[in-house]
Amino acid sequence: MSTAVNCTLAAQQAALATEIAFAVEAKRQDALEAQGDAAVSLIKAAANVGKSTGAGEVFDAQA
């Protein structure tokens, strides 16, 4: 194969590899965002449990 063809094929392969890397990174960032949202939801739910009416009013140290 000629050098020009090899260079063209290498450039196309590099462009495809870059495109794949960007797509994978976007998916990774989406997953991290979803994990962060889930963590915030858990923290908010835990905070609401502490605000529940009557929470902690009855404590049985014998149990």
Give, in order, the helices and strands.
H
Q: Structural class, judged by helices and strands?
A: mainly alpha
Give the proportion of residues in helices: over 70%
User: Termini, distance in Å?
Assistant: 83 Å
How many distinct helices?
1
**Shape category:** rod-shaped
The tally of strands reads 0
Name the quaternary structure: single chain
Strand content: under 5%
- In round numbers, the mean pLDDT is 88
Largest sheet properties: none
Radius of gyration: 27 Å
Low-confidence stretches: none
Set down the secondary structure blueprint:
Layout: H1 3-50
Description:
The protein has 63 residues and is mostly helical. It has a domain at 1-39. It contains one helix and no strands. The protein has one helix at residues 3-50. The mean pLDDT is 88.
